[in-house]
Design a protein that fits this description.
Length: 203
């Protein structure tokens, strides 16, 4: 798979993906802001590790997660039901910055903490019923860079990977979740932690 390489600036790049609408902002937040936000989020978020059930088997999730929102609506995926906590000041400020760009009001943020290269997120689409049709998912990275893989659900020749940089924003919208799956694979490299925030609208 050919990796995509990007200049280090804040101009958005539309990924060349059939049946999808995906934008990448390599440096949405400055390096300094990103490091500050990483340090705050590591300390202030209520990170938890939940058991998940996939095809009838129960495992511990290979990463830590947390859910925050401006309402009390639960989010259900992989047989887990998460109940949100109220947005923290840092989450509200990040949400505000990306809302100005995405022109949409997010209700909810699902956070992931990949502690090292053995933490991962398997192939899936963000297509839960409560996200509605054609959801906008805005995904922010702080800390270690990780590869983000896409594969088309029906045209098996179509795949690509993007290295999500410290301070970057990836926006998936339109029919992306209907037609593509995504994952964060494990890596054998000795790497440190990555925080990911995915802002969503829960109806
Ligand atoms: O960590 C990431 O960049 C992806 C997270 C993700 O796909 C999800 O939480 O649905
Ligand atoms: Fe996802």
């Amino acid at each position: 798979m050919e990796p995509l390489l990007f200049p280090n600036n804040s101009d958005p790049i539309q990924l060349d993906m059939k049946d999808a609408d995906v934008w990448y902002y390599p440096a949405f937040f400055t390096d300094e802001e990103s490091t500050h936000l990483y340090d705050q989020l590591i300390k202030t978020i209520a990170w938890q590790q939940d058991p998940i059930t996939i095809f009838g088997k129960t495992y511990m999730q290979p990463r830590l997660t947390a859910l925050y929102a401006n309402n009390t609506k639960p989010y259900r995926y992989s047989n887990i039901t998460m109940h949100p906590k109220a947005f923290t000041p840092e989450l509200l400020s990040i949400k505000n910055s990306i809302e100005n760009t995405c022109d949409i009001q997010f209700t909810t943020c699902l956070l992931n903490l990949y502690r090292d290269g053995s933490d991962s997120n398997g192939w899936h689409a963000d297509n839960e019923k409560e996200l509605g049709q054609h959801p906008v998912i805005a995904s922010v990275t702080f800390g270690e860079e990780r590869w983000f893989h896409f594969k088309h659900r029906y045209d098996k020749n179509l795949k690509l990977k993007v290295k999500l940089q410290h301070g970057s924003l990836l926006v998936m919208q339109g029919a992306t979740q209907e037609n593509w799956l995504h994952q964060i694979p494990k890596t054998k490299k000795k790497i440190s932690s990555r925080i990911n925030l995915t802002f969503r609208v829960i109806k």
